[in-house]
Amino acid sequence: MRATARVRSTLQAALARVAAKGGLGEANPGDVRDFVIERPKRAEHGDYATNVAMIAAKRAKKPPRAIAEALALELGADDVIRSAEVAGPGFVNLRVQPAVLHDELEEILREGTSYGKAPSATKERIHLEFVSANPTGPINVASGRNAIYGDTVGRLLEATGNRVTREYYINDFGNQIRLFAASVRAAAKGEPIPEDGYHGEYVQELGTFLTRNAPAIVESGGEDLARLCVTYMLRGIPGSSSLPGIRTSLASIGVYFDNWFSEESLHRWGAVPAALAELENKGFLKAKDGAVFFVMPDKDGKAADDKDRAVKKSDGNYTYFASDIAYHADKVARGYDRLITVLGADHHGYVARVRNALEALGLPSEKYEALLYQLVYIFRNGQAVKSSKRAGNFVTIEEVADEIDDAAGRKGAGSDAVRFFFLSRSASTNVDFDIDLAKKESLDNPVFYVQYGYARLSSILRKAESQGFSIPKSLSSAQWQKLAHEDELALSMRLSEFPQIVEDAAESREPHRVVFYLQELAREFQSYFTRMKVDPILPPDSIRSAENWEKTWDSEKTMARLAWIVAIRNVYAAGLALLGVSAPEEMRRPSDAADT
RNA sequence: GCGCCCGUAGCUCAGCUGGAUAGAGCGCCGGCCUUCUAAGCCGGUGGUCGACCGUUCGAAUCGGUCCGGGCGUGCCA
After folding, report:
1. Within 7 A of a protein CB, which nucleotides of strand B?
2. A407: which nucleotide lies closest, measuring CA to C1'?
């Protein structure tokens, strides 16, 4: 962060001067690390606050306030720091010169919506596996959380200089798929669906569709039918609303993949037996009761898992875990620096298993990173709904999004609202999702508040152009000086936080930090916007109707504020794009739109 | 039993790599549209941060014990 970096170096220089004058006692300024320069919670504590004096106090063996006083004296006023004062137990509160903020705004204008992003993808090559929902049913709300969380982590990682490959692992092998194909076949032939089979309406629809288009394959059943079922579950049935296809559903909430990786292909190419053979050679497999187990390795003298895990069942079939070993070995072989998998908390036991298997294979298990999110619980009118694909009892992500589209009167509003809803909670929190409440309160979603701010900013710029102002792309420092209102500078300060927010959010894999930042930014702007109606950015008609109004109107100030508006709008746009949420140029309350 | 996550305002949640008077949205009460979008703004209401001990100049934040909720602990995926 430019502004912060300048404050930091100014502070360090001042600290060195304090030391030179003996203010740090025995301690060297270089010893004073781990201090923070942060934005205080309270505005009256300045633009920045630092605990450096309190950190230095221990080494210097001097009271924190004495060091703080000396530091504040050295900081005095220069071209970066406007004022420095000591507060509380030894904080130094700093206010920066407006020019520091003006420089930051100028940078935002220069970088546009790239502001806050790393210049190029040079950090890591990252493989990001997420969703990977069984292709035996549509994308439900729970999978939606995975999709939205994973996708946004991907966006954050890209923004911070990584190259990300997004992959959906298709579980198109094994019991569930066989069962699914059998259910589809039964439905197609008008026979009863197996007890433990799949009962959703879409099963019937798929059966009917396949009977019409590929009767021979339906008749024969078997592998070919299973594959065909998976294909249409992913692709969808043309024109069907109950079977839009997993791919389409995900696209409708802004989630896309680079690769769709088939579990079945691992078996077809012998990758599974190959991986197991290697484990066998290294002594990690053990037969018991006709089945084969992966023996948990030791780690630091302790068992790395609770128990041995089956890789081959006594009926001769491989387990899901066996495929997963081969799958992760394959990921490693593809040469990524980091393998991230997004998993629901119900899969958390899996993490140790995969890591142990990679280690046993002699592969770098530290590349493997699992992102766990807590589960989503579905409610209808306050009643818990057991979501089950087999029972055909689930709520699709599109159903929810479509409802909100209707309420808001805008296509895409539902995707925005659902994304924002999930992203505003940290992954470690359980989510209760009440369908009826979500529909009823859909317009209360905070996403619209943020978008409304963006629409207002856009509206100001439109209006300015219609009045003949040209939107500035850059200002001189003399021109920037017109931007001097306390609230305008405070908001500029807020903008300067954005790059750090993005970095922290990416580093911690916590998209909600961006969400909360945008809400704060929106609040600050909307408050300013309403309160400043007495001192408008643009000349109102009452002034413009007067003769020679240009002579009395401060157009320089208008230009400075317009440039500032562009900067704010850039940060909004950049932030919303990171969340995969749209930035509408115009927004009207749905009830107003209905009136016209 | 063991492992992971959670417990903060009436509700939904931020804040957790220790800092100043614990925040937001929704709800509730009261105000603000003849000038850049009222999906807005301003003010008010509302909290023993699950409990107790400990570490610290300082704990919602770190450690321990306990209580409560979710998930896992399959030769299912």
Report:
1. 1-6, 12-15, 17, 19-27, 35-42, 57, 69-77
2. B39
CATH number for region A3-96: 3.30.1360.70
Q: How far is the CA of A545 from the C1' of B34 (A)?
A: 15
**For A151-171, what is the mean pLDDT?**
97
From the alpha carbon of A352, which nucleotide's C1' atom is closest? B3
Provide, in whole angstroms, the distance separating residue A373's CA from nucleotide B57's C1'. Answer: 38
Topology of A130-146+169-257+374-439 in CATH? Rossmann fold (3.40.50)
Q: Per-domain residue ranges for chain A?
A: 3-96, 130-146+169-257+374-439, 446-579
- Provide mean pLDDT across the span A120-129: 93
Does pLDDT of A159 surpass 50?
Answer: yes
Report the nearest residue to nucleotide B14, CA vs C1': A516
C-alpha pair distances (Å), A383 with each of A380, A386, A434, A497, A527: 5, 10, 8, 42, 38
Please give the model's pTM, rounded to 2 decimal places: 0.95
Rounded to an integer, what distance in angstroms lies between the CA atom of residue A520 and that of residue A508? Answer: 20
The Å distance, CA of A445 to C1' of B29, is 23
Q: What pLDDT score does A592 carry?
A: 52
Closest-approach nucleotide to residue A516, Cα vs C1':
B14
Query: When comparing pLDDT for A115 and A407, which is higher?
Result: A115
Which CATH number is A446-579 given? 1.10.730.10
CA distance A14 to A453: 40
The pLDDT of residue A1 is above 50: no
Report angle CA A329, A332, A337 to the nearest 5 degrees.
155
Cite the DSSP H helix spans in A409-485: 413-423, 435-440, 446-466, 477-480
Q: Are A409 and A593 a contacting pair, CB within 8 Å?
A: yes
Distance in angstroms: CA A508, C1' B54: 30
